[in-house]
Every structure is written in C-alpha cells, then in structure tokens.
Amino acid sequence: MIRVLIADDQEMVRMGFRMILDAQDDIEVVADVPDGVSAVAKARELRPDVCLLDIRMPGLDGLEVTRQLAGPDVADPLKVVVVTTFDLDEYVHTALRNGASGFLLKDAGPALLIEAVRAAERGDALVSPQITVRLLKHFDGGTTVKREAPAPSEPLTARELDVVKAAARGLTNTEIGAELFLSLSTVKTHLASVQGKVGARNRVEIAAWAWRSGVVD
C-alpha cells in the first residue's frame, strides 16, 4: 500500500482527494491536515510514502513544508507532490528546488492525481502536462541558468544522454525503456549513474540540469 498524507486548508478538497485515493486498491490516506505546521508534524510522525501539499496554507505554506520534508538539507527526505490551483512559474521552480517530486494542478483530474502519487512512490516524477515543457525549458530563465549548470563529475555516456533527454521530456521510466528498448532496471541504473555525475537528487533535478546545460534544446 502507498501511504499518503494530504495537507490542504480546504476541507472539501481534503475530502475529495481522500475519496479518490482511498478508492484505489494500492493507496491508503493515513492523515489529512488543514495547515502547514500540522503537515510537518504528522509527516515526521507517520513517515508516509507520499505527501500531497497545497501551497497556500496557514502557519507554513506548502513550499516551506516541502523544504522541511524533502529539501536539500533533509537527511531522510520524504516524497512530496505539490497540488495547487495556482499555475505560477515561481511556485513551480521553488517547489522543485525544495525537493518536490511532482507539481500538479487541482483541475488536472482524478486520473492524474492518482498517477502522481504512484509516480512519486516509485521514484518517477509527474508535473501537470500543461506546464511540463514550459517549466523545464525556462527553468529559472534561459541562458543565465545554462551557464550556472554544474559540469558533470565525469562525462555522461551516449546511452545516459539518451535517457536524460527522454527524462527531460517528461517520460516515465517505463516510457523511457519502451522508447529506447531498455529494461526498467537498466533505465534506473542509468538515471542513478547520472544523478551521481551531475549532483542531482532525483529525476526532476536531472531534467532541470538537462535544460540548464543545453543537453536538451
């Protein structure tokens, strides 16, 4: 079972998400809370597999909760999917910088909500389709970022570059394997190798690095 925590200041949203997710055979909602302080406390207590966080919440907003649960300084980070009404680049960038595994708009629909939870749990990332390419192409804005992209500790192999380019287009591990005729375990091996070489913590950061560095144009 994938154990999920929901944090949103609107009770109707929490109830709706809970109904959608609890109806799945492989997902269980272990808590739902109305504010950011409770989200941090409950997440640290229960250690859910995935945390679904709204951005605008009392106490601590979802971006700060994400940083505290999944940020670069967290020794044992949790997996976070930010779910919001607000399609703002600033929010998306900050959420992903703070360690989020996905970014979903509330109007994306039940199917994408369920898939975002499953993707986060298995180490993939899901970003609402309408913002994926825009987000990654303009991650922190153009050429300045490209100059700031860290050089890999050692060159990526040709196959690793193929996998990185596919990940940067938003493909899941399964889709990458099908496109490149690789097994799922081989895709995961390549992504793990790339993470080490470019200093990324997850596939979202790999994709961002690809756009920043010009690997994907």
TrEMBL record:
Report the coiled-coil segments: none
Q: Which keywords has UniProt assigned to this entry?
A: DNA-binding, Phosphoprotein, Transcription, Transcription regulation
- Looking at the record, the residues that make up the Response regulatory domain are 3-121
Q: Which residues does this entry mark as bearing 4-aspartylphosphate?
A: D54
Matches recorded under CDD domains: LuxR_C_like (cd06170), REC_NarL-like (cd17535)
SUPFAM superfamilies, per database record? C-terminal effector domain of the bipartite response regulators (SSF46894), CheY-like (SSF52172)
Q: Domain HTH luxR-type spans what residues?
A: 149-214
User: What protein name does the entry list?
Assistant: Response regulator
Give the species. Amycolatopsis silviterrae
Per the UniProt record, the lineage of the source organism begins with: Bacteria, Bacillati, Actinomycetota, Actinomycetes, Pseudonocardiales
